[in-house]
Every structure is written in C-alpha cells, then in structure tokens.
Design goal:
This protein is α/β, with parallel strands linked by helices and about 800 residues long. It has 31 helices and 18 strands. The strands form 4 sheets. Strands 1, 2, 3, 4, 5, 6, 7, 8 and 9 form a 9-stranded parallel beta sheet that branches. The longest helix is centred in the N-terminal third of the chain and has 22 residues.
C-alpha cells in the first residue's frame, strides 16, 4: 500500500492502514498519536494484535517480562542542566547532605550484595553525564582515586559487581564515544541511553527543558545510537512523553528509533515513559503527561516499531489500575523492578512489589516472567563480549533465554577473602567494629544476634560510624526523600454512643463533624486506636469506621490495633476472621501494628500485663495481613528489655514479613519515663546515642525487608528527630493535626507537625520532602488532590 505524502495523513486513513498491517511513516504516526475515544480503542486493539504476534513468534505468547534489579546511583553530579531532573546534585549540595562525590567501591558492593541476597540479577548503574567536564570536585576525586574518567570508574565498578556478586551490570552512563563503548562492552551485557525526543526546539530554545544540556542534543544522542549499533552493544533507549514536545516530535522520534534499529539490529527495547513533574525543579509546574495521550504513544510506538521490538512501560509511573490498559496498548515489558532500592530518578514513585505486579499482569490476561538485562535474542556470541558471556549465560534459562528461576540468587566467583568477609563470623578483639559495620551494610543476614547486640551498644565514635553507615544504606536503598502523612488521631476509647458530658468524649455525630473537618483541611488519613469502653457495645468499632467513611469516602482509615480487633472478635462473637471481614466492609483500609511493647512475655508481664498476649498479637496481625490489610510495626524500648530481646523482636518481625509482606514501616519508640521508660541500655551512654543506635540497627537489620524507618517525632522533639533522620530514618509518621473540631486524642494531644514545619526539617537536612499516603504512595496518585 502506498502511503500518503508526509503531512497529509488523517487519523481515519492512518487507522485503516494500521489495522491492515501497513507500515506507519511519520505522518501516520503523528495522526495516530492524536487518537481519543473510539479511535483510541481501535488504535490499542491494532497495537495489541501486533504485540501478540511478536510474542507468539518468540515462543512465549501472553508473557510479559521484567528484570529484578538494584539501582546504583554511582554519582549524582552531571554537566547537564535538565529542567525536570531531581536526580542531579551540585558539589555544594553533596557537601551539605554529607554525600560522597562518587559512591565508593564498598558502598556499591554493599547494595549489590543485598540485591543478590534478594534474588536480583541486574545492577543498574545510573549517573550524570561527564561530571568532570563541569565540576572540579569530580575531576579531583577521579585523580585522587586513579581514574582518567567517570566512565573508567563505571567500568571498574561493573567488573567488581559481576566478580563479587554475579549480578549483571546494565550501564546507563550518558553519552559515550566509540572508544568508550568498546571499553565498556566487556563489562556489561547491555547499555542504554534515552533518546527522549528529537525536538531541537527543546534543546535550543531558552527556557525549554533541555536548554543548557550539551548531552541532550538530539544529533548527539542519535549518533550514540549509531555508534552503539556499530559496536554490537545490546541497547535500551526510549522516548519521554509530555516534556513540551509536539505530536510531530513524538512521531519523528519513534521513526528515528526504528530506522536506527533497522540499520544495526541492536535496540532490544524501547521505553515509552510518561513525564512526572518533580518538586524543586524548573518544570515543577508543568502538568504530568495525560494518560490518554500516553496510551496513544504506547500504541503508536508498538505499531511503528513492530512485533519484534520489546516496548517497555515503567510500572511505578502509572497507577495500578492503569497498568492493564498499558498492556492493552501493546506494551510487553515492565523494565527493571527492585525489591531493595528506590527509583532514584523518580523517588516519589515506589516500585510495585513483584507479587503485586504479577497480579496486575494476570488480571490483564498475561503471565509475568523474569528476564535478564540482556533480552533473549541478544544472548549470542555476536552480541555478548567474551568477558561477560559466561556470567550472563549462567543466569539464563537455556531453553527460553529468560532468567533462571530455580535459583533466584546469582552465584559469583569469590576469593577466599571475599567468602570470609560475607560468611557469618564471631567478633574477636582483632576483627574490629568497622569490619562488623561493613558486613551489616552489605550482608545483614550474616550477622548473628550477639553481633547485632554489639552494634546496639555502640557509643561515641562507634555510634557516629554506625549512624553514618545506616544513613548510607538508607540513601542507597529507599532514597533521599523525607516523608510524612497528613493525618489526625482519634481515640476509640473516648467513643460514647450517646452523649454523656464526659470531657473529650465523642459520639457519632461529633465524629462525623471531626472527619469532615479533617477532609476540609486536606488530611488524607484518620488513625483510630484504643479499646472501646467496656460499657459500649462491640459494634461501636464498626460504627466508628462506617461514620468516618460516610463523612469522607476518600479518607484513608488506619484503624484498630490487634488488641482492638481481638476485643471486636470476642465481644461480637464474630471470631477473628469475621471481625476482619466486618472491618473491611465498614471501610478500614490499614491497621496499626501497635499494642505490644516488645515481643517478650517476660517484658509484658513486668510492664504491660494488660497488653494482648504475644501469641495472640502475632496471630491477629498475621491474619490481618493475610486478609489484605497492611500495617505498621513498632518496638517500645528503654525499659526492662535486654539487647537480646530487642534483636529477637526484630527477628520476629522479619519472619512475619517473609510470610505476609504486610508491614509498611518500622517505628522504634522510646517508652516515656512516666511509663517506666528512659532506662539506658548502656549505663552512662549519652541519650542521643541510645536513640541513634536503635534507629541505625533497625535500618541495617531490616534493610530489604521493611523499607521505611519512621522517627516518632512526638517522643523525641524536632532537634533529636533530625539527628535520627541522619541515622537511617526516612519518615516522620504523621502530622497529627488536632483540627478545628475536638476531641483531641491520647498522649500526643496538642503535638502537631504541620506540613510547612516538616518541610523545614527536610530543608535543614538538605533532603527532598514528600507528603505521602498511608501506604507510601504519593498523595496525588492516592487521592487525586495534590501531587507531593
């Protein structure tokens, strides 16, 4: 079929040709990118048919792929000035944040080893473009460490990662010359650089997103694609939708990618990424890419690139409810997903858990399979350098070319020194505190209880080193953002079905007013805890939930501790599972994991005999997790407990998390002195070291298990909380606003941390601030009200 002249295609004619299997040119692609409504439905159907034909040809019909990875931000210095980027720092910012110019070898391997333990097979090395060309500090660091260039350091770290962990590096280092591609090819089975757009206007015009960024010159990036093809490098690239480009720009970009691939055959996947605006950037006020135009871009990418190309969409940049539509539009790959590290380029968008991603994929009618960073067609001698070939094929299923699944953790050749460093050891006087810290950061599962207890007792310079190590682990796993949820507390203990005149009590009418007030103030969560008074019927728990949800249907209800659930189960005669089902129907979204001080019957008998029995707490909480409720987890410390009991408590949380994946965060809470707290674990140790050691050990021991360590600012005050956020903490819990409608609630009544004050804390730490939802999504995604 002869295509119309460029610029003369109409949407109707382009759709007809697409449905007939015609080859889209720029004019057709531009017309199709404008599709909406019924036209978009036809476009998506046509794209899905092309994708399905490609998967069938590969021998894996209906299979969507992903790569299990760790994200290693080798340096955040860059010579470019992209107006939408939050990844990049200046040397001054690094200094104030106590961040290194480059990650050290030890820091890189610590992240890689944790990823290996969690079954990752890819190590994504992302960094700024040629920082030494702009920043003397980068040049000085490279000179001091014996490297001619940043890319030479990239090559060295890639070799070390594979040699010591077996992970396969995927390099995303920016623009490379042919000589640099040749240097890097032996250390990585794949590389990548986003094309983003071919628009010269966005590069040349002042105020546009790529102005002042030499590496974003479209001609430079297109030349890199040519050079990578000539060098036989399996390559990942893509387009960024919504940065100010026109539909014509998008069409020309997609066709340019197709033409480069047709010349060389080296583009293994094309990412179609939707723009998400970031705070603290010049483009922060720009609207996110609209979902309809994003769907059209995915579908047109599939039609332009054909059935043999893998079209990737990042699953963390869209709502879970949208993922099925992206598959309908012709996508067939989710890209890299990490069980350990944040998306440091989009830190406000958490990765979905792989199990959840598999469920979303299945709900759309597909199966999920893990792949390597190099796609199956590129696992050949033509594409793999001999130096990386054996390590790559060791992780590949010989029949499908996808990732081996029987042994999810890659093995790597290790020297006797390496094996000794990663194996469980006993501390000896000569072993040294620093060696123990290195193991805690890179291989937390290798430490025994006595070694964790040693870290808990750190003081002085050792406490400084412990806090710094934990903060490094925080930085390179969950990322830099400081988060908080806008919420208020309600004490169900104070509920009365009829008004009694008792101070601070409330009835359902008062609760309705309180909830509406919270919604008007922009709060996103109401937290309800406490045993309903014995003279109030058990149905009161459910009526509280129903009232809150009726008054503000979009409000997240975080309600009822295991002890409260047990009371509802017993007094209503519903039993545990019936109580949880009733809570779900009444509108409860998540549950607090509080109600015990520490998981020890000895301690409970001494200081909190009225708390729920430990076995029943465990039963109730795990049942809640299995019923679909996520929860917090806590430990109250500084009373009669021993160091061994603290570690045993953390071990039990790890066991529960392995079974249920229900914990969103861990909160180490000092017990107040009036309740028997304030007792130091180490006599005469500074009080700050008591708290720093507890937070830091929590971060290290729970790394890769429970991602967020929350600092209870109500117990510490702002100055100490800031120090604990430098010791591995990443979250402040809730704002706890009392609002304009009383009653207040509990011991925290009158203690508020409004968002501007929380943001000021982040500013003092030189860290980005993010208002989150209860489950750590960004608020815009959760409620549609405001982007964090």
């Amino acid at each position: 079929m002869t295509l119309l002249d460029p610029g003369t295609s109409t949407l109707a004619s382009a759709l007809t040709r697409a449905e007939a299997g015609g080859r889209a040119d720029v004019a057709d692609a531009e017309a199709l990118l404008a599709a909406t409504g019924a036209d978009l439905e036809r476009l998506m159907d046509a794209a899905a048919r092309v994708r399905d034909a490609g998967l069938k040809e590969l021998g894996r019909p209906g299979v969507i792929t992903y790569s299990r990875k760790v994200f290693i931000p080798l340096t955040t210095l860059c010579r470019d000035r992209c107006h939408y980027c939050i990844f990049v720092d200046t040397p001054g910012q690094l200094l104030t944040q106590h961040k290194p110019t480059y990650m050290s070898r030890e820091q890189v391997l610590a992240v890689a080893r944790q990823g290996q333990a969690l079954g990752c097979k890819e190590a994504l090395l992302t960094l700024g473009d040629r920082p030494e060309d702009r920043w003397p500090e980068a040049r000085a660091w490279l000179d001091e460490h014996g490297y001619m260039s940043t890319l030479e350091y990239v090559a060295d770290m890639a070799r070390a990662i594979t040699a010591e962990t077996g992970l396969l590096p995927h390099l995303n280092p920016g623009i490379m010359t042919p000589d640099e591609l040749a240097m890097l090819r032996p250390v990585a089975p794949s590389m990548g650089v986003m094309l983003e757009t071919t628009s010269r206007r966005l590069y040349e015009a002042p105020g546009q997103v790529h102005y002042g960024s030499p590496d974003k010159d479209p001609e430079v990036r297109l030349q890199l694609l040519e050079d990578a093809g000539s060098a036989k490098v399996p390559f990942t690239t893509g387009v960024l939708i919504g940065i100010g480009e026109t539909l014509r720009d998008r069409a020309e970009s997609l066709v340019a990618l197709r033409e480069a691939h047709e010349r060389h055959g080296h583009i293994q996947e094309v990412i179609v990424q939707n723009f998400r605006a970031k705070d603290r950037t010049a483009a922060s006020s720009r609207d996110d890419a609209g979902f309809t135009e994003y769907l059209a871009a995915v579908a047109v990418a599939r039609l332009v690139l054909g059935p043999a190309m893998r079209v990737q969409v990042p699953p963390n940049l869209s709502d879970p409810a949208e993922l099925g539509l992206l598959l309908r539009a012709g996508a067939d790959d989710w890209g890299g997903v990490s069980p350990l590290t944040a998306d440091h380029v989009n830190p406000e968008r958490p990765w979905p858990h792989v199990d959840d991603l598999a469920r979303y994929t299945a709900e759309a009618g597909f199966a999920l399979a893990e792949r390597l960073t190099a796609h199956p067609p590129y696992l050949t001698d033509e594409w793999l350098d001999p130096a990386i070939r054996d390590a790559t094929l060791a992780l590949a299923d010989p029949e499908t070319g996808l990732a081996r699944t029987r042994d999810s953790s890659p093995a790597a050749p290790r020297s006797s020194t390496d094996r000794a460093a990663s194996a469980p050891q006993r501390l000896t006087p000569g072993a040294g505190f620093a060696a123990l810290l290195d193991r805690a950061a890179s291989s937390p599962a290798s430490l025994d209880d006595r070694e964790w207890e040693t870290l808990l007792r750190a003081s002085g310079a050792d406490a400084d080193a412990l806090a710094a190590t934990a903060d490094d682990v925080r930085r390179y796993t969950v990322g830099e953002a400081l988060t908080i949820v806008a919420n208020r507390n309600v004490a169900s203990t104070l509920f009365r079905r009829t008004r009694t005149g008792e101070p601070d009590t409330f009835d359902l009418e008062g609760l309705d007013a309180l909830t509406r007030d919270a919604a008007e103030l922009g709060l996103t969560e109401i937290c309800v805890q406490g045993l309903v008074a014995p003279d109030q019927d058990a149905e009161s728990y459910l009526d509280i939930a129903r009232t809150i949800k009726h008054a503000a249907p979009g409000m997240h209800l975080h309600a009822f501790r295991p002890q409260d659930v047990a009371d509802l189960a017993d007094r209503s005669t519903r039993g545990l599972h019936g109580a949880l089902e009733a809570m779900r129907e009444a509108g409860v979204d998540t549950v607090p994991g509080t109600g015990v001080k520490i998981l020890s019957e000895r301690v409970r008998g001494l200081i909190a005999p009225g708390d729920l029995e430990i076995d029943r707490w465990r039963e109730n909480l795990t049942a809640a997790h299995r019923a679909g409720f996520r929860s917090t987890s806590v430990l109250f410390y500084g009373h009669v407990e021993t160091a061994a009991e603290r570690i045993a408590h953390l071990r039990e949380l790890i066991r529960i998390q392995a079974e249920t994946r229900g914990f969103t965060e861990f909160v180490p809470i000092p017990l107040p002195r009036p309740l028997g707290g304030g007792v130091p674990l180490v006599a005469d140790r500074p009080e700050l070291d008591e708290h720093r050691a507890m937070v830091a050990v929590s971060r290290l021991m729970l790394s890769g298990v429970i991602p967020h360590i929350q600092i209870p600012w109500t117990r510490h005050g702002v100055p100490t909380s800031i120090e604990l956020l430098r010791s591995g903490g990443d979250d402040l819990g809730g704002t706890l606003l009392d609002g304009r409608v009383l009653p207040g609630a509990g011991v925290e009544r009158g203690l508020e941390l409004p968002l501007p004050e929380a943001r000021d804390m982040a500013r003092k730490l030189f860290r980005p601030f993010r208002q989150r939802s209860t489950t750590y999504a960004d608020v815009f995604r959760a409620t549609g009200k405001a982007r964090a």
